Amino acid sequence: MMDSATTSFPSILSHITNAILNHEILALPVLPKRRGIPPLQTFAPLKSILPCDFHLLNLRSIQSQQDPHSPSPYTAMILHRLALDCGFEAQNLGFNCTTTQGQLSVSGLFKNLDLQLLQPMSLTLMHAGTPLANDSTISLDPMEISAFKLKLR
Q: Which of 115, 126, 136, 137 has the fewest CB atoms within 10 Å of its CB?
């Protein structure tokens, strides 16, 4: 006989608290300007923050197959959609949080970069799926992890 009781997932506040505690920001000191050394520039590729139920697990360049010491023009993006239970959420938690019901437009995700390729991949990046249209909206179910191969220009 199946148990008909519902199983609840953590709330959005507990997911955010978990992310802050387990993935704290590591601030690295920067040396003062020296003659001839250009200052470090901030790298922030996203136009805006991801929806609250998405977690960017990895965004990295893919190694070139011709030269293993240099990157290829492709990027790997691994996303995880969290499962949320909003049944116990309190009002006015002090932060703005939006969800998109598992929908994400990758083409509008990056600033100053055009999406040239959007291709679903296996989590190991060894097996490629059929490329999607560049303006496609990807959809992830709760607790799903998906990998994509991107070409950004």
A: 126
| Long-range contacts of the stretch 89-98 (C-beta < 8 A, 24+) | 89/11, 89/12, 89/13, 90/13, 93/13, 95/16, 97/12, 97/16, 97/52, 98/51, 98/52
Rounded to whole angstroms, the Cα distance separating 106 from 53 reads 15
The two three-digit tokens of residue 132, written as one number: 């999607």
| CB-based contacts of 2-7 (< 8 A; 24+ apart in sequence) | none
The Cα–Cα gap between 45 and 26 comes to 18
The pTM for the full model equals 0.75
Q: What is the pLDDT of residues 5-38, one digit of tens each?
A: 556 777 777 777 887 888 776 666 666 666 666 6
Enter the tokens of residue 136.
């496609």
